[in-house]
Task: inverse folding
């Protein structure tokens, strides 16, 4: 059996090349080249446009360490990523559990559709529709005041919670999908076996289901945490003045200040930090999973 | 340990009656097989006893205590699942320890009990392995150790040997029986394999379409089936149909068949007779060695299947094919197409009401 597999994989690589090539070509052209260019920019004093003078420097990276603003923003972005990921787990995991283990047939399909619906709508439209809901005199405010006997003011617009709400809405489907896949692969008889051995539903959840769905939770968390830390659209539109994060500062360097080298350097610092976090988390997560 | 009483249990899923007024008394310490084709309700009944599902009506008692509304985790049962359902994220020892650990037993007690259970199933050295590193038979043993380590009142087995190959299955049958005897636990065993049911159990319950067809020791069901279904599902049987005469039946062609066991059917009613293939003697002509009251039918060999220690003859008569199994004594070799006489004793003939 093992011998056959070994032969299969040795013989398998060459015929597989035509299948792999398009993906790798695309990755090279679309990711590796621009990223290399950006990496190059991050060591320049200025953009080589319109005959401007430029030279190599480490100043862009030094800026991150000399000004506490950047590291403070990076920390608040990491916190944002952590909080959004946590909310996505809290909201997404139970939904995934119900989808995988409780619902069957048509009702499952219908709920599934609702979960992936955010994917089908434009990101900007999604965020602006939240703006309509969250602002004072908006849909949430009006609706609550119509129902409640006393007057309350709901104005979540341009606040940290608004940013969280918008980001969780955008990213929760990832958590639902990855957890659904691992939960669905857990045989129902494992749950029944746990209960037949005297475990309560809660004990079965903690000792059997959650450990077995760890890969899905980890995959979902990585898919959410990484882009949220660098996010700028939701913080800018829903956060307003409070929505200054690491991602929005990077965006500013590219579209407002036109300091591409600094923007590039900040991006690579973010990339390095995220990679370090994932590397540190990997062994811990592998043990629990 | 405790006996299990199932009284008038019914359970429907929508319009489908999965269990229809089933009553069985499982004696304390007995080994009981629930036998039936797929869809007969045998697994549904096991799940009712386990507590995964509750009956619509009827009573289930374990050790005299009514449990029909008690959830599974409170019933103190042990169960072995068809696919073993070992927790893949835990070692063998942790799998076995699970039931004790959720109860909050002290670590030292757990370790001793787990080792004892693993020794009992002869896997004492494999506690550190993961389930995926074990063979099918070993997983089976781990599942069994896990189910009995908590000292449950009843052991429930859902087709536990179905996934094993033939040779291993026979080994496990013996092994399972040994362990069951050793700890003396009431065991209820679901299977669709009649041979397994015959060789392993003290009593068998045959289910069909959610109803209990017949219940009793294997010999009793085999020798005195009360329905054509029981006769043909547990072992092979030749079924002859006709009108009851009071002491047997009269076939459509006028031949009478005498039956001295089975139901008493009033003369004139429809009835059938069941005869086991190994009870029939096949010969080229009536011989004097047959008792005077023997049943006799004439036919023609349509096919012979040689299986080493025995041969199966298919004998054509009056549009019906009868099966005869003959031990290989080296003398009887009948050719296909040959006219033959079948004789058997009325004692081997079971009368069944239609």
Result:
């Amino acid at each position: 059996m093992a011998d056959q597999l070994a032969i299969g994989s040795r013989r398998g690589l060459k015929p597989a090349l035509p299948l792999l090539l398009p993906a790798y070509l695309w990755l090279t052209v679309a990711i590796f080249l621009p990223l290399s260019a950006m990496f190059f920019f991050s060591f320049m004093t200025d953009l080589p446009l319109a005959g401007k003078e430029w030279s190599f420097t480490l100043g862009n990276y030094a800026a991150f360490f000399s000004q506490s603003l950047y590291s403070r923003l990076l920390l608040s972005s990491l916190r944002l990523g952590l909080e959004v990921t946590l909310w996505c787990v809290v909201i997404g995991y139970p939904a995934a559990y119900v989808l995988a283990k409780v619902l069957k047939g048509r009702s499952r399909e219908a709920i599934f559709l609702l979960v992936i619906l955010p994917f089908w709508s434009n990101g900007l439209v999604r965020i602006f529709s939240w703006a309509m809901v969250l602002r004072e005199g908006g849909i949430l405010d009006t609706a609550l005041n119509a129902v409640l006997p006393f007057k309350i003011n709901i104005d979540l617009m341009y606040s940290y919670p608004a940013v969280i709400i918008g980001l969780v809405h955008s990213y929760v489907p990832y958590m639902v999908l990855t957890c659904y896949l691992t939960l669905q692969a857990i045989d129902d008889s494992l749950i029944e076996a746990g209960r037949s051995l005297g475990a309560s539903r809660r004990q079965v959840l903690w000792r059997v289901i959650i450990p077995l769905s760890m890969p899905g939770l980890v995959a979902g968390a990585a898919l959410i945490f990484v882009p949220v830390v660098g996010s700028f659209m939701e913080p800018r539109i829903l956060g307003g003045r409070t929505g200054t994060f690491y991602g929005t500062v990077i965006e500013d360097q590219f579209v407002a200040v036109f300091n591409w080298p600094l923007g590039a350097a900040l991006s690579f610092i973010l990339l390095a930090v995220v990679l370090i976090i994932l590397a540190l988390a990997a062994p811990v997560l592998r043990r629990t999973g | 340990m405790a006996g299990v009483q199932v009284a008038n249990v019914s359970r429907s899923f929508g319009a489908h009656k999965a269990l229809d007024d089933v009553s069985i008394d499982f004696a304390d310490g007995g080994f009981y097989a629930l036998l039936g084709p797929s869809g007969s309700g045998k697994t549904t009944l096991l799940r009712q006893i386990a507590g995964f599902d509750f009956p619509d009506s009827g009573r289930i008692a374990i050790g005299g205590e009514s449990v029909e509304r008690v959830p599974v985790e409170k019933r103190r049962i042990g169960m072995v699942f068809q696919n073993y359902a070992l927790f893949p994220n835990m070692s063998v020892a942790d799998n076995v320890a699970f039931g004790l650990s959720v109860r909050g037993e002290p670590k030292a007690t757990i370790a001793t009990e787990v080792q004892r259970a693993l020794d009992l199933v002869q896997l004492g050295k494999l506690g550190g392995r993961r389930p995926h590193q074990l063979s099918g038979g070993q997983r089976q043993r781990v599942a069994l150790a896990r189910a009995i380590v908590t000292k449950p009142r009843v052991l429930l087995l859902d087709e536990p040997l179905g996934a094993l190959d033939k040779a291993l299955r026979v080994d496990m049958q013996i092994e399972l029986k040994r362990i069951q005897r050793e700890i003396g636990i009431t065991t209820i065993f679901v299977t669709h394999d009649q041979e397994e049911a015959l060789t392993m159990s003290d009593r068998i319950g045959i289910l069909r379409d959610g109803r209990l067809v017949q219940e009793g020791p294997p010999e009793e069901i085999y020798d005195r089936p009360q329905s054509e279904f029981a006769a043909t599902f547990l072992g092979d049987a030749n079924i002859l149909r006709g009108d009851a005469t009071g002491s047997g039946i009269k076939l459509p062609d006028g031949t009478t068949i005498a039956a001295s066991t089975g139901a008493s059917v009033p003369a004139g009613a429809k009835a059938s007779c069941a005869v086991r293939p190994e009870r029939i003697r096949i010969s080229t002509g009536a011989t004097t060695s047959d008792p005077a009251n023997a049943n006799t039918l004439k036919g023609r060999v349509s096919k012979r299947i040689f299986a080493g220690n025995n041969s199966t003859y298919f004998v054509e008569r009056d549009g019906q094919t009868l099966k005869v199994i003959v031990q290989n004594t080296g003398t009887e070799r009948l050719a296909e197409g040959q006219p033959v006489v079948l004789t058997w004793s009325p004692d081997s003939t079971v009368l069944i009401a239609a």
